[in-house]
Amino acid sequence: MNRTGIDGGSEHASTEEFPEELRERAVRLVLDLVPETGTITSACRQVGEQLGINTDTLRGWVKQAQIDAGTRPGVSAAESTRMKALEKENAELRRANAILRPA
What is the pLDDT of residues 40-53, one digit of tens each? Predict the structure, then answer.
């Protein structure tokens, strides 16, 4: 699924279009390249150009990988998925309670 950017060009959906294997490989390449380039942004730009991945998309993957590895503060992907599931369940229970309350 492509999304059209403001300039009319296509923009990749970060998790929907790229296989997990490619994302993991791209993140590894970026992290390996950081000592040479000096910054994650520079490494993302270089790897992104080689693999055809938007720099910002790649930077987001790297950031999430660092969070998941515990080397950067933030909410891990697993915890985020768990919270979304709990929020959905909570909303369903609230709807059920709202239906049952008048009865």
Answer: 999 999 999 999 99
